Amino acid sequence: MRLFAAVNLDPGCRAAAAASAQALGAELDRVDASAAVRWVVPAQLHFTLRFLEEVSAEQAEAVRGVFCEPWGTAAFTARLGDADLFPRSGAPRVIWLGMDEGREHMVALKTELDDRLAPVGFGNETRLFQAHLTLGRIKRRVTVQGADLRLVLSEHRPDQVRWMVDRITLFESRLSSRGSSYHVVESAMLGPSLDVGRELT
Predict the structure, then answer these.
(1) Selection from 17, 67, 24 nearest residue 46 by Cα
(2) How many CB atoms lie within 10 A of CB 58?
(3) CATH, residue 16
């Protein structure tokens, strides 16, 4: 099984992210770059916390076990941030949206996840975690330089929709000739929200 842990989106945020992908595709058409991008289908948009790669059935059960324990990180409100590219230099490979509101809480959730996974055989990751929502992957080399693409992306502002991050989800990624499909293995509620009564707009 290929597993990953992620924060899912609510319908409003998913629609806003999909609208951003569509708008960015139109902008990239102007610089002849859109055709090089494989855009993520809206149903698969999510914030990845950790990709666990291929695991055995025993490891999968162990991971499910730590997911089922009560979570200390409280539910929190989040809002999409600006668009950018990975990597920071060199040929661009990924177009993504950041998280404007809720970033610190997302880091806290990632830290708790890592702490839970360590005893069941998954050591801490060495690379710096940055909450990001992958919109598209650049599947072939483009003539436009990364700096020029980043400039195009910097002019985009996603819809300012807030949503409540109240659970963490363990997915299985299944590969086929038609691409990847994601299936929920376990989904767990976070702790009580610290923003009770706050209006989401």
Answers:
(1) 17
(2) 10
(3) 3.90.1140.10
In a domain? residue 194: no
Whether 198 maps to a domain, the answer reads no
Domain count, the chain: 1
**The tokens of 31 are what?**
């610089």
pTM above 0.70, yes or no: yes
| CA angle (8, 73, 188) in 5-degree steps | 45
One pLDDT digit (tens) per residue for the chain, 201 residues: 999 999 999 999 999 999 999 999 999 888 877 778 999 999 999 999 999 989 999 999 999 999 999 999 999 999 999 999 999 887 889 999 999 999 999 999 999 999 999 999 999 888 899 999 999 999 877 767 778 888 889 999 999 899 999 999 999 999 988 888 999 999 999 999 876 545 555
Buried b (16+ CB within 10 A) or exposed e, 135-169: bbbbeeebebebeebeebbeeeebeebbbbbbebb
What whole-number distance in Å separates Cα of residue 44 and Cα of residue 29? 23
Tell me the helix, strand and coil percentages in the chain, rounded to 5: 30, 35, 35
Closest CA to 20 of 128, 182, 134: 134
Q: Is residue 128 part of a domain?
A: yes
Residues spanned by the domain of 60:
2-189
Is position 200 within any domain? no
